[in-house]
Q: What sequence folds into this?
């Protein structure tokens, strides 16, 4: 069975500081991994995804995540956060060939001016 | 149409009443998904459609819940005899059926249900 663990429910960080949001998954088969962002009163938006190939994936707004198969992790990082990055971030996994996403419980990132 | 739309955005109802939500997917997306998100949790899969066929249902989808997609376009999710535990955000997503690999699911803004 698949599962996703996001150990940090809340992460406060000062503006322009680096941040890492942790995500670990469990699955017995090949997986695809995702990070979604949810701004207040909005739906989920895909931030980045790992399907295959390079284990380091990047988003257009400076976030990156690295797939680590041995540690079953897909941590999200940004070297310098902005106020506008304040949001809820969800890690998700799906097994190859499956049709639904399994989400973690989310991490609320709060960027402090 | 630039995205998935859901109506209503908010619904407040009394316990025991029936409610119905609507989801309009992105045009030409033939897959449609329903998820439920309770406070402090991530979204949980409920069911999905390929065109008008409901192909998978989660065990979370009790017999008080029914979803339809009669013409393979919009979908409705009905909850009968609502309970306080049904209070949640109901999210809809759509995607193209992939030829291979995976196709991104695009999410709507959700319908927030409050059962009093």
A:
């Amino acid at each position: 069975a698949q599962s996703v663990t996001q150990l940090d429910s809340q992460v406060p960080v000062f503006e322009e500081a680096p941040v890492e949001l942790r995500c670990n998954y469990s699955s017995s088969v090949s997986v695809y991994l995702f990070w979604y962002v949810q701004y207040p009163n909005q739906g989920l938006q895909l931030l980045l995804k790992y399907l295959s190939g390079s284990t380091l994936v990047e988003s257009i707004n400076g976030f990156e995540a690295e797939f680590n198969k041995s540690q079953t992790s897909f941590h999200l990082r940004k070297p310098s956060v902005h106020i506008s990055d304040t949001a809820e971030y969800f890690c998700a996994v799906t097994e190859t060939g499956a049709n639904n996403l399994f989400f973690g419980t989310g991490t609320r990132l709060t960027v402090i001016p | 149409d630039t995205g998935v739309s859901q109506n209503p955005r908010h619904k407040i109802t009394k316990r025991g009443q029936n409610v119905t939500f609507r989801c309009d997917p992105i045009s030409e997306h033939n897959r449609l998904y329903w998820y439920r998100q309770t406070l402090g949790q991530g979204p949980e899969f409920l069911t999905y459609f390929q065109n008008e066929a409901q192909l998978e249902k989660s065990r979370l989808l009790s017999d008080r819940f029914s979803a339809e997609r009669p013409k393979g376009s919009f979908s409705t999710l009905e909850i009968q005899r609502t309970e306080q535990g049904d209070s949640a955000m109901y999210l809809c997503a759509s995607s193209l059926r992939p030829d291979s690999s995976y196709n991104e699911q695009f999410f709507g803004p959700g319908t927030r249900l409050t059962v009093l």
In short: Chain A touches chain B through 26 residues (CB under 8 Å).
